[in-house]
Structure formats: C-alpha cells, structure tokens
Amino acid sequence: MKKIGFIDYYLSEWHADNYPKWIDNYAKETGLDYKVTHAYGEIEVSPVDGLTTDEWCEKLQIKRANSIKELVDSVDYVVLLAPTNPETHLALCAETFKYLNGKSIYVDKTFAPDYKTALEIFKVAKEYNVKFFSTSALRYSPILVDAMKEKNVITYMGGSNIDEYIIHQVESIVKFYGVGATKVKAEQDGDVVKFEVAYENGKIAYMNYSRAFGYDAEIEKLDGTKEKVDLSAGCFQGLINNIVDFFETGKVDFDNAEILEVMKIRDASLIAKDNLGQWIEVQKN
C-alpha cells in the first residue's frame, strides 16, 4: 500500500474530511493501492467545529503524527492542505520540503496568500528539488475540460468571501486562456463584482462574483450559441484523480507557470475590487 499523509493547519475541515474517501474511491476504480494513513495538524483544535486532532484522527481512522518530520517519514506522499489559511503555506512547505527526499507533494488551494510568497515557495522547492503542484479543483471540472475547444468562458461564482473564493474563478480562466494576463479591472453592479482580465493577445476574460452565486459559467460556443453550466459537478473527484495520478507518475498535466499566473491575477483582482473602475497591472515577473 502507498501511504499518503495530510499536513493541515487544523485537521477538522471540509477538505481533510472528504479527500480520504475520494482517494479510496479512485483507488478502487483504478486498482491503485493508495490510502491516507497519517495526519498532522499544526494547531490542536479546529475553529470550525472544536474537534481536536486526536478526535478527528479517531473519527477517520487515521494515525496521528506529532511532527511534520514524523509525518513525512511515515508515508510515501504528502498532501498539504490548510485551504482557508494560505498564509501558513510558506512555513509549512519550508518545514515539509526539507524532509521529503524525493517524495512528491500536492499543495492545496489557495497556493499562497500572494504572488510574492508563491515565489518564495517555488524557491524553497527548487532548493530541496521537490516535485509538487497546486490548483483549485475547478481546473478539473469535467464541463470546463470539455469547454476548452469552445470560444469563451464567462464565470459566475460565489463563496463566503471574495478573497478566499475568487481562486476558483481565476483558476478556471487560467485553464481556459493560459498565461499572459496584463491587467484587471473591477466594477460593482449591486451585490455583484464584475472583473475584466485583459490579455496581451487582446482577449478579455470575464469573472463575476456574488455570495449568491454557485459555481457556474456561460460557455460561448464556436457556433455562436451560449450555454449556462454548473462547473462544480465532479470537479473535486477530478482533482483527487489527478493528485493520485501525479503521485503515481510524477507528471502534472499543466505547466507550473500557471500556478504563478493564478497568483498574479488573484493579486490584481483583489486590488481592483478595492479600486473600482481602475485598471490594475498584473505583475510581470
């Protein structure tokens, strides 16, 4: 059995609760022998529901590790979570990377709190020769994958706060348009924040945020027709499948430059929503 270890800021949270069963599902479907066996939480008590590390581990029948080194030494692969606390990722990555010794790691969304910190994580990864990737699950929406051959995608997504949840929209447009964004502008229309992302090739991507939205998109097809779709269905299982495939093969199905592109667009978007009507330049390097 190939063992996967979780590292989290606190363990009782939605991603840590659900990823193990989805990994089990994919292992059963493919005949691959992967299982989450160990977990480490930096803080002892989850602010989500008050569950302690020991209580969470008992609930999911996963062994507790008392340090990052112990966790890494006990498993074959690592998933670093803390999806709501990307400000912890640099420190957690720096501590984890030095013990990996060739083991692969997936870093959950949002990769970093900002582009500058993302560069620091890449620097540490290079220092320790670490294989990793990071993405929002929306990259692996089956509908978005199918839409790649079409003309345009306009996203309409929500979440409890724009700072955390805009990552899903940015990830979606980077999957569709790739790298090369130059500037971002935001406008307010009632409770909807509308973003335009301009590209060096002249294309414009559109993102729309409201807490009332789900995870939808409008697909503009090559024949001129448009279709409103729900991007959320199947996206997390798609993500899990690709994490396991990465552990199995060492290969990622997109260039890591897109991780940094996502961070640059996210930075510019968050500045733009506080400076409505102004074009905000996307960091060039």
Give a brief rundown of this model:
By secondary structure, the chain is of the alpha/beta class. 39% of the residues lie in helices and 24% in strands.
Structure, described:
The protein contains nine helices and 13 strands. The chain is α/β, with parallel strands linked by helices and 285 residues long. It has a seven-stranded mixed sheet with strand order 12-11-7-10-9-8-13. A six-stranded parallel sheet has the order 3-2-1-4-5-6, sandwiched between helices. Strand 11 and strand 12 (226-230) form a beta hairpin. Helix 4 packs parallel to helix 5 (115-127) and helix 7 crosses helix 9. The longest helix has 17 residues, at 14-30.
Reconstruct the topology from this structure.
Elements: E1 2-8, H1 14-30, E2 34-41, H2 53-60, E3 63-64, H3 68-74, E4 77-80, H4 89-100, E5 105-107, H5 115-127, E6 132-133, H6 142-147, E7 152-157, H7 162-177, E8 181-189, E9 192-199, E10 204-209, E11 215-220, E12 226-230, H8 235-249, H9 257-272, E13 280-281
